[in-house]
Design brief:
Layout lengths: L6 E3 L4 E3 L8 E3 L2 E2 L12 H4 L12 E2 L8 E2 L3 H19 L1
Antiparallel strand pairs: 1-2, 3-4, 5-6
Length: 94
């Protein structure tokens, strides 16, 4: 059997995670897992995904419930998004 997305060790019959999986975090503790395009570390879909605040490479989605806004690892961008999207909207509703 051919395993195109997984490294297979025939000696101990164990599947190992490939080194070429997309590292974009969709949810907390859950990465995309798609095949990486080149040496970028991201699949074709997430390679084009930009941070909503600074327009640099997005590395994960917002972790608030129901919010899937792409963000980078910069704390400023996360804080800016949380203030504008979550705290500000919460104050308007209450």
């Amino acid at each position: 059997m051919d395993y195109p997305y997984w490294d297979y060790d025939e000696e101990d019959s164990t599947l190992y995670e490939p080194k070429n999986m997309c590292k974009y975090r969709i949810r907390k503790n859950m990465e995309c897992g798609g095949l990486v395009s080149g040496s970028s570390g991201y699949c074709l879909i997430h390679l084009k995904t930009k941070c909503i605040t600074c327009q640099s490479q997005a590395t994960h989605n917002c972790e608030e419930d129901g919010c899937k806004t792409p963000l980078c690892d910069n704390r400023y961008c996360t804080t800016d998004h949380n203030i504008k999207k979550h705290i500000y909207q919460w104050k308007i509703k209450h």
